[in-house]
Write a structure and sequence with these properties.
about 450 residues, mainly alpha, 4-stranded antiparallel sheet
Amino acid sequence: MLEANWTGTSTVPSRNLYPHQWSWDSAFIAIGLRHISPLRAQTELETLLAAQWADGRLPHIVFNPSVPLDAYFPSPDFWRSSTAGRAAGAPRTVQTSGIVQPPVHALAAWLVHRADPGLSRARGFLARLHPRLAAWHRYLLHRRDLGGAGLVSVVHPWEQGMDNSPCWDAPLARITPAPARSFRRADLDHGAPEDRPTDLDYGRYVRLAADYRDGGYRDGAAGEHGDGEFAVEDPAFNALLIASEYALARIAEELGAAGSARRERAERLTATLTERLWDAEAGLFRCRDLRGGDTLVPERSVSGLIPLLLPALPRDIVAALVRTLGGPHFSLGDRARLVPSYDLLGEAFDPHRYWRGPAWFNTSWLLERGLRAHGEGERADALREAVLDLADATGFAEYVDPYTGAACGATGFSWTAALALDLHHRRPAPRERQELDKSP
């Protein structure tokens, strides 16, 4: 599957639906590729990071110039990165989007290095990537701290990766949608309309992206609110940044520098995440809507479980997250075979519509690591087996019905294949702890 989606320098998520390079997709893909071709895994990340902007941002799409403009929307002529993004330092030699995606990249780079340290050192892999990864984190921590408390904000639902989550319904309701006649949705050529975001939601996505573009992709500094109508502190996005801060500490140490400052920052960010986004009554983390009265969004999403990855999370919060994962709202191991993307009991739950209920393989992979990191070996083993079984049974589907395991979205999806490959090769002992912070 990964061979079929390989372009020569990177891997597309899906040949038809997503024919370019996507940011966090490539990070997950590299994690799987490291087991069969560490060189190709390194190339995957190098290609992505070569498209980094001068301000440090890593764009969520790197466009392939050989793909027709009408194959995907929004296309390069919508984003206009080389002109609209000039002040922010967009590259001139490649077209990209102007928004970002979750920062899984340093974690991926560290795992890829560990797969073949000799090759990595011979090629100077980490030495070349480290400055770019550090600039990426610096951009997020300084330019995207829109709430002023230390956490990163997303300025568009596409940045968080869980595009159509009900968590965005209230923040998006304030956005005037772009007229339907002003754009053509290429995604409906390859996916069932009932599985995809509605036209109304899509119109709001387009409006937000166009406004950000027309503002020169400008971000407010820490403590500034700027002009954007959408700014949300998301638990999964911040948890992945923290996990990658730990990985950057290891990368620095591998290169002969100190990593203690990054570990301390990761621990401070964990404390801030808990202080700002933890909801003890619900037993999970929630999104904070900075433009909606600086309040927590009431929806329960898989995003609120992803901080289980973090090694410095207080024990009582770990225990509560594990209970929530197996409880009625997510029902893992009972009614649900993989982790649903949204509350099974929520009014907006839909087992097939994009991120409004279906189970995704990448979030289950992240939670498998989190469970194992905190000594929940049995639960982690069961989730690992479910991922492997359903990936194979569905032809490596993009996502699945959480109840039946039926395939939804695209088949032949790259991160599903890559993460199944990772779990297949990584056969952990029952008490093994994952590489989050304390393993050598």
